[in-house]
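In response to the reviewer comment on reproducibility (Comment 2.3), we provide here a single inverse folding case reported in full, input and output, so that an independent group could reproduce the run without further information from us. The structure tokens appear first.
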């Protein structure tokens, strides 16, 4: 995004309303000039879509950066005063092994960014790689995508390593040094209201959800999105259980969801601690399956 557009957008928001302003960027795009502009605009947190520090894994996913670029740009951010940095890491990339994952984890430890997001590689049916996998093809690294068992091992290995480095896992995919938990991530999981501006942006006012038009022509015409009411109790479980501290169900919710709670407690995937309910460590990898059972109950 050109600097003048970024300045114009952020200037529309009163400075005293800004707490955490995160900019996402791809490694290979950070310059000293850009860092200065971002800081002047009020940006105080930068998220780097690193995914991996291993060149072969990056090439198979079409990424052009390498570990040297990430290290150089992380240093640029810090020297420019943007020290609140997040690094995205993916477990289960094509060609990834336990040994190559350790290379990426070593780089994470060396860079010591205060926040790390760890995601499991998901196949997008609309992508070239996703189509190739579904068709049983050999292009785009499709034969090299790890199986479910190895992907689980990769995730657990990365998660354990991050905790040993001093990161606190506060949400399924998010790890932070003390005091660096992402405010905007927490808003979603705590079901706090948020407003999305722009094409296909989503919003939530505490009771209703809506999304802006995903067609540029419709968006420019100012077509208004139709809000849909949310079920507060369903969302309390479906969204709130992503937090590792879990949730505190109401008396009505304990009764309404007694069956799925009992089922997953018996399976060792949910645990009750006082008045709170939370995922057990082994439940993270099957969390979506668990969450689904709290819908339409």
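Designed residues, in position order:
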């Amino acid at each position: 995004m050109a600097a003048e557009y970024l300045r114009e957008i952020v200037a529309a928001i009163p400075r005293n309303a800004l707490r955490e302003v995160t900019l996402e960027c791809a490694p290979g795009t950070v310059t000293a000039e850009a860092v200065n502009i971002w800081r002047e605009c009020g940006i105080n947190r930068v998220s780097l879509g690193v995914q991996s520090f291993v060149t072969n894994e990056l090439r198979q996913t079409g990424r052009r950066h390498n570990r040297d670029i990430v290290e150089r740009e992380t240093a640029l951010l810090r020297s420019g005063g943007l020290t609140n940095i997040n690094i995205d890491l993916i477990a289960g990339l094509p060609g990834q092994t336990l040994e190559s994952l350790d290379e990426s984890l070593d780089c994470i430890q060396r860079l010591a960014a205060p926040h790390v997001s760890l995601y499991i590689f998901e196949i997008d049916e609309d992508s070239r790689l996703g189509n190739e996998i579904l068709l049983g093809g050999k292009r785009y690294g499709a034969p090299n995508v790890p199986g479910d068992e190895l992907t689980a091992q990769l995730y657990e290995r990365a998660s354990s390593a991050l905790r040993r480095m001093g990161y606190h896992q506060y949400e399924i995919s998010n790890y932070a040094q003390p005091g660096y938990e992402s405010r905007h991530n927490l808003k979603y999981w705590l079901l706090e209201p948020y407003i999305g501006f722009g094409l296909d942006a989503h919003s939530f006012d505490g009771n209703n959800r809506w999304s802006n038009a995903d067609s540029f022509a419709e968006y420019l015409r100012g077509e208004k999105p139709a809000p849909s009411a949310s079920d507060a109790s369903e969302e309390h479980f479906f969204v709130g259980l992503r937090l590792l501290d879990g949730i505190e169900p109401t008396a009505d919710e304990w009764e309404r969801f007694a069956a799925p709670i009992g089922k997953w407690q018996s399976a060792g995937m949910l645990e009750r601690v006082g008045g709170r309910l939370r995922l057990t460590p082994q439940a993270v990898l099957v969390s979506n399956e668990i969450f689904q059972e709290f819908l339409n109950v």
